[in-house]
Amino acid sequence: MSGLGDIVLETRGLSVNFGGLRAVDNVDIKVARGGITSIIGPNGAGKSTFYNLVTGAIRPTAGQVYLEGREITGTPTNRLAAMGLSRSFQITNLFPASTVFENLRLAAHALEPMSLSLLPVRRAKRAEEKAVALIERFGLAARATELAGHLSHGEQRRLEIAVALACEPRLLILDEPTQGMSHTDTEEASQMVRDLSKEITIVLIEHDLDLVMDLSHTVVVLHQGRKLAEGPPAVVRANKDVQTAYFGAH
Ligand SMILES: Nc1ncnc2c1ncn2[C@@H]1O[C@H](COP(=O)(O)OP(=O)(O)O)[C@@H](O)[C@H]1O
Ligand SMILES: [Mg+2]
């Protein structure tokens, strides 16, 4: 789908209450196709809750979510992959005791038509073909039957990218993908996100302001569940309200 502004993800009035706490409060966001849009905010801002609402892990108290113009509010996570939304970035989520081929075939399973997706994974034809194509593309042909856990560091990184692309998502949404990583791994993962963004639209949910500065074309700031600011990274960082939210009132 393209044209008409080509908005990949939109939320309207998205809200959720946890008891007396409104963790996400009337959030309107539009994500245009292409590149990386980052959603940032200090701890407790509601970022992960927003992520959980969009990816169907929890249902909103009010508001709607649209994927490519189609309402997906409350659609369960496992159905969203087939609709073009991939939520996981398998940075550390390879199955180390499964082969390269198995990792990819499993990830590609969402490509099967609905009725067929109920079949056992090993009978799924399209997933198998996708796995083979990705193995070729990412230079893993000689390693196809090797266990993922036995790959070199570089090979694992390539496999991770291939896994993220396996279900042919049009939107990839990531919640703090580099959390807990070393400096080197963070750099490498950032590069991976950058590479992936040439193919698919990415929504990057991130706490670290500096990390998103040179990655994203648009930054949205959440604070206390509400949208506080939105715009190009440099403009957002210079915003007084954003400074206060991040660094306090001084
Ligand atoms: N399942 C839940 N039940 C109750 N409160 C929650 C739940 N999940 C998150 N919260 C609260 O909602 C607020 C936002 O949390 P979260 O979305 O995890 O923030 P962030 O990811 O920006 O750090 C926090 O105050 C948190 O304690
Ligand atoms: Mg979080």
Written account of the structure:
The protein has 250 residues and is α/β, with parallel strands linked by helices. The chain folds into two domains: 1-84 and 170-250, 3-Layer(aba) Sandwich (Rossmann fold); 90-168, no CATH class. The chain is 33% helix and 25% strand. A hairpin with a 2-residue loop joins strand 9 (218-223) and strand 10 (226-231). Helix 3 (100-107) packs across helix 4 and helix 3 runs parallel beside helix 5 (153-165). It starts with 6 loop residues before the first strand and ends with a helix. The structure holds adenosine-5'-diphosphate (ADP) and magnesium ion (MG). Adenosine-5'-diphosphate binds next to strand 2 and helix 1.
List the helices and strands and how they pair.
Elements: E1 7-18, E2 21-32, E3 36-40, H1 47-54, E4 62-67, E5 70-71, H2 77-83, E6 85-86, H3 100-107, H4 125-137, H5 153-165, E7 171-175, H6 183-196, E8 201-206, H7 209-213, E9 218-223, E10 226-231, H8 233-238, H9 240-247
Parallel strand pairs: 3-8, 3-9, 6-7, 7-8
Antiparallel strand pairs: 1-2, 1-4, 4-5, 9-10
Helix pairs in contact: 3-4, 3-5
Bound molecules: adenosine-5'-diphosphate (ADP) and magnesium ion (MG).
